[in-house]
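Appendix B: a complete holo record

For completeness, this appendix reproduces one full record from the ligand-bound portion of the collection. The bound molecule is NAP. The inputs are the chain sequence and the ligand SMILES; the output is the full three-dimensional arrangement of the complex, encoded as structure tokens. No fields have been trimmed.
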Amino acid sequence: MTTRVLITGAYGQVGVDCVDTFNGLIPPGGSSFLPPVSAGEFDVIGVSHHDLDVSNESMVTRVVEMIRPDAIVHLAAYTAVDKAETDEGTCRAVNVDGTRFLAEAGERVGAHVIAISSDYVFDGRSARAYVEGDERNPLGAYGRSKRDGEDAVSASVSMIRASWVMGSRGKNVVRAVRDRLASGGEVRFVTDQVGTPTMAADLSRVLVEFVRHRPGGIWHVANTGEASWCDVISAEAEILGAGSVLPITTHELNPAPLATRPAHSALDTGKLHRDMGISMPHWRDGLQRLLEGAE
Ligand SMILES: NC(=O)c1ccc[n+]([C@@H]2O[C@H](COP(=O)([O-])OP(=O)(O)OC[C@H]3O[C@@H](n4cnc5c(N)ncnc54)[C@H](OP(=O)(O)O)[C@@H]3O)[C@@H](O)[C@H]2O)c1
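The structure of the chain with NAP bound, as generated:
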């Protein structure tokens, strides 16, 4: 039987990989840590911001009732972390209200809803990686909107906290500096922000499992291994065989970013392993696949 999946934010960084993954278009050479998608398993309907503004409740209701999906993968979000500091109303309209509208509309048509939250719900003061039940204390407007988006939905929704996402398309730090490194340039990256880098393609593979199994509740999904931004970009330079990275601290960033980021927001994925049997590949393995164009 075919499962109809509605994907919001389908043209965003995770969205493009997610649409391809659900359509079974994972190129050979990619990581195979999860069962592949079989032909006809999913009927995928990816919608852009233009097709569906998730902050518009009547539009959400109309689109969800017209498509009547079996599952909704809700990726649309306001993701401009610094801009959110001076535009919190818009950020909340998308990340809090929009998430609630999708969850309620999904519930009305019997769809399983999967929404994405963030490591930025935490303050980053923990010495160890965060588990799902740890206390949340966001440092900025984006993190607050993600926390309140989590609270705006029922426990039947699968709420996935992701972190430091990077894909082969869309906006991310690895892509932003690639040309500069490849031409032998030097870039500066901080050593005092540590997290769990996550490949959009690997996150998308896990989203397929969530549609298949519909667990509900809060989950951490990230590649394994912790790294600072300096570590990630140094690994990129090493894989490309070009460029260099000058380690700096957050205080040396000029201009100083508007939003304060958590210092240590790594996500512990033990629950994903224990309860769903999913072991994520190491971030460096994922970065290598991404830079080599394996996916
Ligand atoms: N990137 C990360 O490091 C990271 C980390 C943790 C969690 N996450 C979460 O993962 C999810 C996917 O992130 P991403 O990296 O794919 O972000 P992204 O590249 O910024 O994509 C977000 C998409 O949402 C769309 N969008 C914005 N406002 C909308 C609205 N009102 N209605 C409908 N669509 C709207 C955007 O379209 P326009 O550009 O046309 O406005 C964009 O295509 C988000 O929930 C994000 O918060 C991301």
